[in-house]
Amino acid sequence: MxxxxxxxxxxxxxxxxxxKKVHTEFINAQFDKAERFWKELLKQxxxxxxxxxxxxxxxxxxxxxxxx
Amino acid sequence: MRGVxxxxxxxxxxxxxxxxxxxxxxxxxxxxxxxxxxxxxRATEDIDMIIEKLPLERFKSLHSDLLKNGFxxxxxxxxxxxxxxxxxxxxxxxxxxxxxxxEMEMKFAKDALDxxxxxxxxxxxxxxxxxxxxxxxxxxxFKEEALKSEKDLKDAEHLRTVYAEMVDExxxxxxxxxxxxxx
Lengths: 68, 183
Prior knowledge:
The complex is a heterodimer.
Chain A: H1 3-14, H2 19-42, H3 47-54
Chain B: H1 9-21, E1 27-30, H2 32-37, E2 46-51, H3 56-68, E3 71-73, H4 79-87, E4 92-96, E5 103-108, H5 112-119, H6 136-147, H7 150-162, H8 169-182
Parallel strand pairs in B: 2-5
Antiparallel strand pairs in B: 1-2, 3-4, 4-5
């Protein structure tokens, strides 16, 4: 049994009206962080190519707006 | 900073994508997002989806509908090229135009086990999402028998805890047997 899984499951059970807000903020924060990092990396030399490599982008044309 | 609503970014992305796929074929959302939408507190970049195997013409219609509704394929805009990946059992990835993440990773059903997953698909009211998932027993079995990473085992434990009343140990054993035979 994993302590943190059980602790979080208990939090959900004990806070049925509020756990979802905490969960939503937690999930959304990952995407805010990734988006911010994407923009920073684009400013770096070779940043564009690094993003193409990291995400395995083959359809570069379809990503044009995100890669400039 | 994006706003906080009842639905998180993964939920909204998944609802929109599924509403389009639903018009064209049977689908299931599997693996990590089943656990996350059921409250597991961890992140993911992609949502995994299995759809029934489609002939090219029907897939073209689905792909075109996805593009028309603001999605892009990471592999190609061409339906034929994307179809070629799918028929070679390679997952294809879609994003919302203008957003690098999250991604939908889509595969064709490839064997009797995937057909069984689609046949036994369910909706999970606890998630608050009106989408089709593979069953809880199926997800637990895959995570414990096939995937087995620390993250997957914790997902399985979370599902076992949250859906304790739904878990059918006999069914999980049967699915694990199928996994050993077919994968």
